[in-house]
Amino acid sequence: MLSTILRGIIIFISSLAVFSAQQAYASKEDHPAVSRYEGATLKDTGVIHYKKILVPVNVVPGTEDTELIEVIGKITAHGYLLEGNKSTLEVGLNYKQVIEKLGAELLIDCVDKLCGYQPLDFYWQSWANYNSLVVDDNDDDTRFLVAKRATDKGDIYYQWIITNVYDGIIGIEQTIIEPEALLLDQVSVNRNISVQVEQTVLKAAREDIEGSHDHPVISRYQGAYITDYRQREFEKVFIPTGVAVNQVAPVITVEGKGTTIGYNLSNSQSSLQIYQNYLSALKAAGFDILFTCNLATCGHALLDDLYTSDANKFRFHPVETNNDPDSDFRLISAKLTTANKAIFLLVAIEGALTSNDINKIVVDIVEKSEMNTAKVTIDPQYLNDEITQKGRVVLHGLNFAFNKSQLLPSSTASLAAITEYLTLHPKQQFYVVGHTDNVGSYEINTQLSKARAQTVIEELISLKIDKSRLTPIGIGPVSPKIANSSDANKAENRRVELVLQ
Fold first, then answer.
1. Where are the domains of the chain?
2. Could you give the angle at the alpha carbon of 291 between the alpha carbons of 334 and 349, nearest 5°?
3. E strands, 309-468, in order
4. Domain 225-368 has CATH 3.40.1000
5. Nearest residue to 360 via CA among 335, 326, 325, 331
6. Which residues contact 192 (CB under 8 A, 6 or more apart)?
7. Residue 104's closest CA among 93, 95, 92, 116?
8. Per DSSP, what are the bridge partners of residue 72?
9. SS percent in the chain: helix, strand, coil, step 5
10. pLDDT value at 372 more than 60
11. CB atoms < 10 A from the CB of 476, how many?
12. 10 Å Cβ neighbour count for 446?
């Protein structure tokens, strides 16, 4: 009785009614528009949203001249095995009847070499084939069908590959590409939030690793969970601005507080959709987009070329750093400049290739700043010892705004110690000498170093020190304490000294 009822069911989806030419054996595992072939067993299935795929629409028999078009939409792949000594011809003719019932246009109907090779060769590398491996491209009877149905929401494409897997067993690979709008607003950016405030963690498919959280500036993609997390108070970060040439990537080098967050996300979202969400959110928040790339346009091993040490390469986990040009890889680098901060950001996406895989995302953020040296303090006795022995002393604890001559509030304790020493030695006169590292031009560094020396003098004058005792000098990068070969060394070279006259 049940079998009789099933044979009479016509499945309506968006005014679409389709069933196999013999019997309709629909299942919730099948596509709602096209049932499985009678007696077929579902071996694998996969669904991905807003995925870009190339669809063959025309072949020239016996040649490799195949016309491919680019389609974006929801892709549903089903792999079936059919027993019962059917032929690929018989099964293929049944699916041709399905195309007629759909009211679709038959674009391709070919067998093996008459397909012109490329449609089948292309399919073996496609997302759908990765997700449902039931067909065999080595069989001479492999049949390939492609059809298109126009709807008011866009064209739907149907693709079947039918082959002899082995004696008496037919493999049926079905791929349906349906038009689908891009799902946006899955990532949010807050350009006004204080970087010290933590953003509320969004609900994720799984728990985040212990001690991790989203960066306050940019949220996770909805449904993602954190698998890797690292944060450093001060580090050097490379932000790519183009494709690497001879394994050297063009970069902007930024020093400051670095945060790297690795996420995993369900494979139901295509890398294209993830990429477009991040890109749209960053643009809407006023970020300047420095560089973007997709798939092969990113070149080979773009992330791998940024750093030479294994420790730094691991920062991009779980995304593979040696991205192959054929991998589903996408990247965005961006910059946000406001009145009081500069933030650089990198988003790397490695899309899932199979239904057993998962999307991987890394967000690398650096908040540009100078190294905080407030942990190093001075006192009048230290100043006296250094000046007595060397005739000069480094004024530790004087902290300036990035690339400016403005002293930060954290300098108060050191200014008080300097004032106390000068008050105890009223007859001494000093050069107040500003130094920089070697980043930037000589002219700019010289001006900056003198401006910082002048700022120190003005602060001391406000604390009742006679200005005639102090002379500002700026010598920029010409007298480093140590080679400018590391971030720590450069921080040590950025200093202000008192030099006894």
1. 2-178, 225-368, 380-500
2. 80
3. 329-337, 342-350, 359-368, 392-394, 430-435
4. yes
5. 331
6. none
7. 95
8. 52
9. 25, 35, 40
10. no
11. 21
12. 17
- Give me 197's structure tokens: 């405030």
Residue 96 phi, psi (nearest 5): -65, -35
Grouping H, G, I as helix, E, B as strand and the rest as coil, residue 276 is helix
| Both tokens assigned to 341 | 């901060």
Give the relative orientation of helices 380-390 and 412-424 as an angle to the nearest 10 degrees.
60
Q: Are 363 and 333 in contact (CB under 8 A)?
A: no
H or E segment and range at residue 6: helix 2-8
The Cβ-side half-sphere exposure at 490, using a 13 Å CA radius, reads: 15
Cβ-proximal residues to 288 (8 Å cutoff; 6+ apart), any chain: 334, 335, 336, 337
What's the confidence (pLDDT) of residue 198?
Answer: 36
**Residues in CB range of 262: below 8 A, 6 or more apart:** 226, 227, 228, 229, 316, 317, 318, 319, 360, 361, 362
Cα torsion angle, 277, 280, 283, 288, sign: positive
DSSP state of 302: T
pLDDT digits (tens, 9 = 90+) for 133-142: 677 665 678 8
DSSP summary character for residue 77 = E
The total of other beta-carbon atoms located within 10 Å of residue 365's CB is 25
Say what the pLDDT of residue 24 is.
34
Which residues, other chains included, contact 37 with Cβ-Cβ below 8 Å and sequence gap of 6+?
20, 22, 25, 80, 82, 91, 94, 172
What value does the CA radius of gyration of the chain take, rounded to a whole number of Å? Answer: 33
Indicate whether 262 pLDDT > 50.
Answer: yes
User: How far, rounded to the nearest angstrom, does the alpha carbon of residue 305 sit from its chain's CA centroid?
Assistant: 16
Task: Please identify which residue in the block is written with the tokens 């040009």.
Answer: 325
Position 245, amino acid: V
Whether residue 439 contacts residue 493, with contact meaning beta carbons closer than 8 Å, is answered with no
Average pLDDT over residues 378-391: 88
Contact 350, 360 (CB under 8 A): yes
Q: Taking residues 208-220, what's their average pLDDT?
A: 89
**243, 261 Cβ separation under 8 angstroms:** no
Chain centroid, CA 130 distance in Å:
23
The topology under which CATH files domain 380-500 is 60s Ribosomal Protein L30; Chain: A; (3.30.1330)
State the Cα torsion 461-463-465-471 to the nearest 10°: -40
pLDDT of residue 313: 66
pLDDT (mean) for 390-394: 91
DSSP 36-55: BPTT-EEEEEEEEEEEEEEE
CA atoms of 220 and 278, how far apart (whole Å): 9
Compute CA 301 distance to the chain's CA centroid, rounded to the nearest angstrom.
14
Residue with tokens 């540009």: 368
